[in-house]
Write a structure and sequence with these properties.
Helix content: 25-40%
Largest sheet: 3 strands, antiparallel
CATH class of the largest domain: Alpha Beta
CATH architecture of the largest domain: 2-Layer Sandwich
Structural class: alpha+beta
């Protein structure tokens, strides 16, 4: 069990998940204390949560939320033909925010999270269009911020995506890059795709690649879409989802 603090509960949880390198579905989260401003700044407290890694969170959640109140039976009332059925106007759809409306808040959020991880950071935001925000991060410790196979960078990108979704910008995509890593990673994945396809053709047996996020799996699919000798599909769930290359 590990404790983490933050300005609010969500920030404490986000810090914990990144530090421990686990997805939310693999974490048992216990809120020990909510944030408090105190009295005129005296006695101010940060939010405090406990995070424990669990193998199967479903069982824990079932035990906690197994109680369901009994359903009330609705009485069937006769319909009076003379009663006028009222028509209510449909509520207008909530307008979703666009990239330029959330970029400033998102930049502040990412800056706070990454600095809390111990990085000296420079961050440049580029609003590509109404639905895409691209960030270039600068730091003296590039390899550590990227992480093994980009796992730390991908986790931060996922946090940014979750943040804008909660702000109401569900149509906005967030991408993070450090020192041109994304381009290098795309070139590596493309080579892996073609090399693996050659092995499948030669041996006639499928190959399972390592788990990777959706945007990286898309690179593999795209690299082999015109190959007439192999086919690709995704297998697994969540962070364990991976590409399978099979002979046609």
């Amino acid at each position: 069990m590990t404790e983490f603090t933050g300005k609010n509960i969500e920030e404490a949880i986000d810090k914990g998940l990144i530090t421990m390198g686990i997805p939310r579905e693999k974490a048992l989260i216990t809120v020990k204390r909510s944030a408090s401003n105190g009295f005129f700044g005296i006695g101010r407290q940060m939010a405090l949560v406990d995070i424990t890694i669990v193998e199967d969170k479903k069982d824990t959640e079932t035990a906690v939320h197994s109680y369901r109140p009994p359903m009330r039976k609705n009485k069937i009332r006769p319909v009076d033909p003379a009663t006028t059925i009222k028509k209510y106007p449909l509520k207008p759809k909530t307008q979703r925010l666009l990239a330029d409306q959330v970029v400033n808040d998102l930049t502040d959020y990412l800056t706070d999270v990454i600095k809390a991880m111990g990085f000296e950071l420079g961050i440049t935001a580029n609003v590509k269009n109404r639905h895409l925000i691209s960030y270039e991060l600068q730091t003296d410790n590039e390899n550590r911020l990227i992480g093994r196979h980009g796992r730390t960078l991908n986790a931060l990108q996922q946090l940014g995506q979750i943040y804008v979704n909660r702000k109401g910008a569900n149509d906005v995509t967030v991408t993070l890059d450090v020192a041109g890593y994304r381009k290098r990673r795309q070139e590596i994945l493309t080579k892996v795709a073609h090399k693996s396809a050659m092995e499948v053709i030669a041996n006639g047996r499928p190959i399972h690649l390592n788990p990777m996020p959706a945007f990286e799996r898309k690179i593999i699919h795209k690299a082999l879409v015109t190959n007439k000798h192999v086919a690709t599909y995704s297998s697994g769930k969540g962070n364990h989802r991976s590409i399978v290359i099979i002979p046609r």
